[in-house]
Amino acid sequence: MIKGLGDDDSVLRKKTSFGALMRWLSILLVGLLPAMLAAKTVEGVKLPDQASVDGKVLVLNGAGIREKFFFDIYVAALYLPVKASDASQILQADQLWQLTMHFLYSEVSKKKLDKGWDEGFAKNISITELVKLKKGLQQFKDMFPDLQKGDEVALAYAPGKGVSVIINEVEKGTVAGADFGRSLAECVAGCRTRHRKFEESAVRGPLKRNIW
Fold it and tell me: What residue ranges are annotated as transmembrane (predicted)?
């Protein structure tokens, strides 16, 4: 489930299986509204107001906490060219974006990370698209090692370039193509599995109730 934390709805938690992380991250992609961005420090992690992708400045659009079995796994933050709250508009725009994950848990294995990405893609894009992107997805997964507390992962998309994976400020590589970037965004947004009630809550106002 997803719920607000205290008086600050910009910080959200979800308890679910690891493979559902893509659907959870949709809360970041649809935007958390300007009023929800008061807290810039989450679980001791200071979130910058801005990020730079391809030489351009992006602004913090939303932040949340990934939780599993009552353990905090990581703090995630989404950066966009301008703050937005319309998921469809964000996904349709071939624009710069960055998703940053600050890991809090002692260790998240590569096996679990790979499984999460595989399940996210399988649930949110067609079989035809999945076959087409198989090589790119494998290249993407190959860049991830086991991750530990204190590690920072940034997924940065730039039109005409693709999705770059940056771990602890070291660029591991780039998966080329707008198709992969768009499909990754769709997986993050969980657009084919997102519940209507979730979409309405995320776009129209603060999340103050359970919605799954």
Answer: 21-39
Instruction: Give the list of residues 6+ apart from residue 185 with CB closer than 8 angstroms, or none.
Output: 29, 90, 91, 97, 157
Cβ count near 54 (within 10 Å): 14
What pLDDT, in 10s, does the model give residues 74-101? 888 889 999 887 777 777 789 999 989 8
Q: Indicate the residue type of 95.
A: Q
Q: Does 211 map to a domain?
A: no
Structural domain includes residue 51:
yes
Q: Structural domain tally of the chain?
A: 1
* pTM of the entire predicted model: 0.73
CA angle (20 as vertex; 5, 144 as ends), nearest 5: 105
Would you state the torsion angle of the CA atoms of residues 155, 21, 18, 77, taken in this order, to the nearest 10 degrees?
50
Structure tokens, 121: 């893609």
pLDDT tens digits, one per residue of 40-85? 788 888 889 999 999 999 998 887 777 766 677 788 888 999 988 7
- Reading the block at residue 158, the tokens are 């730039």
Structure-block tokens of residue 108:
């998240």
Tokens coding 77: 């933050």
